[in-house]
Batch of 2 targets.
Target 1
Amino acid sequence: MTLRFTFDGRDYQGRNGDTLASALLRNGVHVVSSGIRTGRPRGILTAGVEEPNAIVQIEEPFPEPMLTATTVELFDGLVARGLRGQGRLADRPDPARYDAIHAHCDVLVVGAGPAGLAAAASAAATDARVILVDDQPQPGGSLLGAGELLDWVAETVAGLRAAPEVRVLTRTTAFGYYDDNHVIAVERRTQHLGAAAPAGAIRERIWRIRAKRVVLATGAHERSIAFADNDRPGVMLAGAARTYAVRYGVLPGRRAVVLTTNDSAYAAALDLHTAGVEIAAIADLRSSISASTSPDAAGSEWARRCTERGIEVLPGWAVSAVTGEHRVSAVALRALTDSSSTREIEADLLLVSGGWNPVGALFSQAGGRLTYDPALAAFRPDGGCRQAVSVAGALAGTYTTSGCLSAGVEAGGGAGLITLPVVEEPEAAPPIAVWTLPGAGADAFVDLQRDVSVADLDRATGTGMRSAEHVKRYTTAGTAHDQGKTAGTLTSGVVAELLGVEIGALGTTTFRPPYTPVSFAALAGRDRGMRFDPVRVTALHGRHVARGALFEDVGQWKRPWYYPLDGEDQHAAVLRECRAARENVAMMDASTLGKIDVRGADAGVFLDRLYTNMISTLKPGAIRYGVMCRPDGMVLDDGTVIRLAEDRFLVTTTTGNAALILDWMEEWLQTEWPSLRVRCTSVTEQWATVALVGPGSRDVLAGLAPALDVTRAGFPFMTWRDTTVAGLPARVCRISFSGELAYEINVSWWDAVTLWDELSARGVTPYGTETMHVLRAEKGYPIIGQDTDGTVTPHDLGLGWAVSKKKADFLGLRSFARTDNMRTDRKQLVGLLPVGGELLPEGSHLLDAPELPEPPIRALGHVTSSYHSAALGRTFALALIRNGRALHGQTLWATLDDRLVPVTVAGSVLYDPEGARRDG
Amino acid sequence: MAERSPLADVDLSDTGDRVTLAEVPFLTQLDVRTSPSSSFPEPGTFRTDELDGEATFIWLGPDEWLVVGPPGAQKRLTERLESGRLESVSDTSVVDVSAQRTTLELRGPGALELLALGCSLDLHPRVFGPGRCAQTTLAHTPVILLQRKHCVTTGEPVFWVLVRASFASHLASWLLDASGDLTAGH
Amino acid sequence: MMLIPCPWCGPRDESEFHYGGQAGVAYPADPGALSDEQWAHYLFFRDNPKGPFRERWSHSAGCRRWFTLTRDTVTNEVTA
């Protein structure tokens, strides 16, 4: 099938199964991008995820920056362009869906090459639960590029797919290896379909895999060698060229020169030759290789095969020059030991193999160690790892197919349970380590994506850099979005050479997740928009919505903020709601307050230790306000304590602290006071709570609760009654957070709507959190977390009356006597009256002079709450001010925008200081 | 007016053809805190018990169980617990938490996958079979999860998810959204 | 994502737990008998070792039990 695509504004055609890179090569496009610093034209170096050069931006169907052409699967209608190192984010919201899924298995196999497939099949044969992940569209790994054992691959994959406890995930990259064998992978589900992707389908899925055991078969990446002009389009890794020819049916050039340090390039040369590429010469940096066709020549089987095909093998030869800027046109070779022996060869392709680097990123992330193996000329996993992980195949330094297969079977745990195909392979000759060729300097690149050359590394070491990590940060080598997959070991090799140390002693830089770039959208998954964090709502939420409430987030809760009538703004709505509460009757949904049932013979003793004030003396039927501190004496929470029976209390917490206080209680009970016979149970959503507030509240309640004695004497302040309200079983508490006559009516969460509708039918005005804040602030009642910040004691808040002087100990007591807490200049909560009627911003700083002094400026304190008051007919604020109570009546200055405005310090209780309105 | 369950206004029918979702409202739920004894199920398990033949005892912690029964059984179950089952009443609390959580029943061939989209526990039948329970999080929401049984006709698992009333609409909305993303087979 | 072994519920993701800091820091029997310095030591001073560390965790999203374990602060390995 023909696929149409556009690259850099020109239209091309590719084939099904192409990557963008193979399709570009198919169309003779060799310049894909340009160097980020040098601007030099750059082509395609690799055929996979390790690509440093061919960086592209997809424009259609949806903009995606910084992709590698070697991993973008071609689809019809693809529009892309090459990048010079930097992409561009989409300027419109991504319409695609993303999600995440958890998975568990006995054996996770990463990589579906020969070792990984064998490991998965072997593990599956033991009846283990197996997950096999591979980043390619189809399993096979290196076998796909070599065209080997494809029948075995197909057969094995079919068997795995049919097994009930095996999951095969293709197009899935394991990018992070975390504690306790937690491996995170991203599955690309619809990108390869382009615009044909089904609407609403999940585009990418994050897999969070917890494995009992992990087999890493992540293979190896070929690396280059640093020589002058090694970045020219047409310079390609030998294995990549082989993949393009064998797997994609594309010839990356017509006439090639090969430069190698190891056997693998010979196999590539032979396959390319078979495919129709003329191989002009193979320059093998190993002088020891014999090109003799004699079967006795030890270790030169590959060279012999090439010679038999008429391919010239030049042992001990190197590349001395590359000609051609936009495409290689000729390659000069020179004998290493005899500089007078040279060749100038016309070629459009220079195939390089500087050796193979085991892909140790995940193994390293798992905590495993990579050490340099001179026999392999590479870093490889060395020894065990604290996590249950094993390595197999090229990752372990095994480069024969038969070796990979048997290592995979071993790692999978099913040795003896499956049969392997027999593979004939030539005897191998050992590779050598070569990092630079003679004359490598400013044009000899180690990191193509960052344009870091041998000269840059020389400058770094010349400056005094001595470690791989320092050189990385000084030169940026290895910091591009390929994270130095082709550059890392090469950089270390060159630096070791420059410093005259062993590469093994120098080491490499640290591998960190993600192995390949992952989109933020995929990581966010379903946790976007309204599902970013759970939204908690009360039983009355639908009623609030219907009344047109605007909502405020309080922790995870949605609370009604205010209920504007037609044409009202917030200011007008809040003034109206305040007036209704102060002058008539109003109601608020208070169901979000945390409620904890505290029960047991020692419940009173327990609460005495947690609260600053005395709780055990509370009589059943009565209610007390209480403050909790941490041992450091700072206020933790406040609320009411209801004594339901001798051994039973109901404690309320602030909305945001319900879970925290229950945990707090359990912590002290379980870890410090296990002998106390106390049980704590959350009942926050068992009860819905409506606060009925205002001088008219008594009449409304009396009408709904005919059996309840609502008189002052019959139902005094700070007591509670079980009764029937609106025909519902209810607990009514005579408490007030506004200073007005008020009741809190508690009914079953299931009955909340009935109660609310009955109150609404009686014309009670609903009010939201903003009005609640104004009403309580007028009375100087602090809100924990708004007027406090973890450095405030009860005394600072003026709540010294709630601190017991009788109890031997309670949490916080000892700290009240600490020197710092006895200072007279601690910040204290006071009221503020702006002289000019301004509304001060919360957080506004307070100074003792009308002009800003020279820095450093030491503020006296800051505004914690600030409102318009209907009852006072003015604006006011609460503030924490150093020694504030002593400043009563004085003028201070508050920051407001870029000016200072005068404010008068007042007491914190600004409305009804006598408390005359409390009993109606 | 009638009692209203937390999901009374939520249409749970649009879950595709791989799962079904239903609210089981108004169940009696009693939180029992007491010393461990052999008459209560082991950690991580629940069982339906002879107590009226209708109460399900769910392990929540080493000294905590949730007793779930049919609607309206609060008084009867509390009395039976306090008169018979509990060994030391002084060290025991039975608290009515019936309205604290509502119950979602989830079944169908896609039920396991749907849960895996939001829950980190291994719910594979080899690990989490019928009779297993756990307190954990689903869609970042605290839940009590029960593997009730395998459906007699299809052999597929039936789960109960007990969720706090305030989180119920978030969780239902999440389940409805995620149910559209289930894959055929695995 | 570490797995924390809850003694009751088995291994669970660390996100189900609350961290409780160094284990074995008991609330003093008689805080009133301590000097400011001794009391400050209880309030504010904790070990911060590189290596094994006895610490408290609470399975807050599960059984809500507190327990103590030893974790290596370098490798996150839980050893006891």
Target 2
Amino acid sequence: MSKKQLALVIDLNVCVGCHACVTSCKEWNSAGEAGPMADENPYGKDPGGAFFNRVQTFEVGEFPNTETVHFPKSCLHCEDPPCVPVCPTGASYKRAEDGIVLVDYDKCIGCKYCAWACPYGARELDPREKVMTKCTLCVDRIYDELLPPQDRQPACVMACPTNARLFGDVHDPESVVSKAIREGGGYALMPEWETKPANHYLPRRKTEYKE
Amino acid sequence: MKPAWSVILLTTLIGAAQGLFLVVLAVDASRSAPRDFVFVSCVVSLALLVAGLIASFFHLGRPERAWRAASQWRTSWLSREVIVLPAFMAMLAIYALSGSPIAGAVAAALCIALFVCTGMIYACLPFLQEWRSPLTLVNFFLLGTASGFTLSVPLAVLFYPQFAGPLALGAFGMGAIAWLARIAALVRNARLRPKSTLATAIGVDHPRIVQKAQGFMGGSFNTREFFHGRPDRVVRASRWAFLILVFPLPAWLLGWGGGSLQAFVAAFALQFAGLLVERWFFFAEARHPQNLYYQAAS
């Protein structure tokens, strides 16, 4: 537990489903050193390509007692990632120093077995490069000393207009993410598979309106 | 899951090759079988293994880097398969050329190890509940061995005619066992309850959750790789098709086909076609929990 584990905490109570995190993710990761992410037929009939982050929408309950939940979804950087040991080439790995799960694009053979081994569907095969891709927590941004310190955060976190995305070390009990998990009832997705996702979600909360 | 033809061909072709080798080795060890029968059977087995290996390359996005897949044998069953398959092919070739019982024994051990590796690639994934069972391993072994047994019968007609009868009987028995074990897996999987639900997928504890948008209107890797994309009736029909093709039809040809070469070849062809359908169904039947996130485009 002592080592660093970087992660996102996503507050479903304030996410408005604007997709700014999706577009900023695509923009940053298309301009990085790995080259552009596939963006096939973007204005055509059947757009395709690869994305590291998506915002989905769910409706909970039955009319008229319904609630709309906007649900951003990206790699959860599991502490026990099932995608890593299955990789036959060692391209899929978890960094010891900060817990980020990454793919070495130069070693990946595109066998897709890691995607089968991820219950969350967090990985996408780049349709042009034919290698597996996924969220890197903007590893090429967060350590970049040429950026001002406040900008050394993942692009999705920077873009969020409602501050629904927090970034930090979930192993440091005093970090902003640890406090948010502790005080906001942060939870992990699909706990039944014991993958121990590092990313956490904060639940919707009832807000009492007092006149 | 989406059935990939490359993987369907790989697993069925090498399964038949492994089964044929085990049968021929057993025949060769227990009695002095004609040299031609052993040699030609080994060549056929090797040809099937090569065909399976070629098919497997079509599964890769970057086949030119395939050699890298041998590096993670400590943790990955896929990596282990990548090592064991060529090792088995090499020992099989040595056995075919030398007839050495030691080479045969080593090849047999590698052959069994290959069945374990192939089966574990699927059985080791905890959340693909349809595959997460010892029956997955058992069926890869039994179905492969049964098809190899059936293939040995026409080869015996050509090169070892006096032993074709016992081999046909063996193929009949092995087919029956494999068929029953496959039905056992069908029964087991029919009773499965998915552990993951939309409630655990998004962490909202409510019995009624409906997806309204998956974040994009077009397709993506997630909407293609994990869905078979066929109506339920096709999946149900494929189950009946393989249940008839894998055993009852070839068994009838083996037992009551008149003992002709054509009948035995047809028995193998039908059984192999059944195994292709069986493997298609094996993938189509598996429900990946990621599909919970991709129920509605908008």
